[in-house]
């Protein structure tokens, strides 16, 4: 684990001392789940359920905060079962899906979801022309109910296709009152307004968190990082963790700790569990 500064190392020690009041917020793709070509089979890392349940004994709550639909991440992560074990350990598991538009938690156990934004069906009708004109007709289009994600990872030139598509997909989104969320070989189109930072604020309010760790890997996590940074400025012990990849470096500059992908995230959480246990005894 590589701290960005001595200050960051001190922040980790503060978080350990405040662990019993801490919420641990985790992105899914690229953080709990290794990146794969086909988004429909991006299962949680094999070790993650056990690591989360072990950590649950020491913290106030765990949360998965993702761009995925909540039902899909519950399935890919086996999070219903993880939630039962987390609950048995005396903690709670929250799932914020679609960048905070959907939610599920171990108290309620139902997915709460708003209606899809009005412009989404018109956007979808115009999308094939935009894909053809950007020479990306074979891009994979993931329909997520509240959003549409255009994936370039499986094209011959993923980055080139991404760059050709971003302006025209953004124009079509704006014409339908929608916003864009660029990510790792993906451009997501969804209603503007909600983001992962709002999920962080909701978690703090509902759990009365006294400390916060957030781990993410992509641009969609920047708002969560900003919300946690606000908490830090108010005096709360916090830690920002970047699950590093060669594809995206934006979060590394903002993080206290940079770790090597999901394996590194799980190692950090194992360390936090051990350190929090030693503080309790
Ligand atoms: O907020 P996240 O949990 O990081 O989810 C963001 C989007 O991730 C997914 O796409 C990414 O993961 C795929 C599977 O590993 C990969 O093929 C793709 O290139 C990545 O961008 C997902 O498909 C989206 O729906 C999520 O919103």
UniProtKB/TrEMBL annotation:
The UniProt entry, under Gene3D superfamilies, shows: HAD superfamily/HAD-like, Trehalose-6-phosphate phosphatase related protein, domain 2
Q: Which UniProt keywords apply?
A: Hydrolase, Magnesium, Metal-binding
The pathway is: Glycan biosynthesis; trehalose biosynthesis
Enzyme Commission number(s): 3.1.3.12
Cofactor(s) for this UniProt protein: Mg(2+)
What's the catalysed reaction?
A: alpha,alpha-trehalose 6-phosphate + H2O = alpha,alpha-trehalose + phosphate
Instruction: Recall the GO molecular function terms of this protein's record.
Output: trehalose-phosphatase activity
Q: What class of enzyme is it?
A: hydrolase
The UniProt entry's sequence similarity note says: Belongs to the trehalose phosphatase family.
Report the protein name in the record: Trehalose 6-phosphate phosphatase
- Its source organism is Nocardioides imazamoxiresistens
Gene name per UniProt: otsB
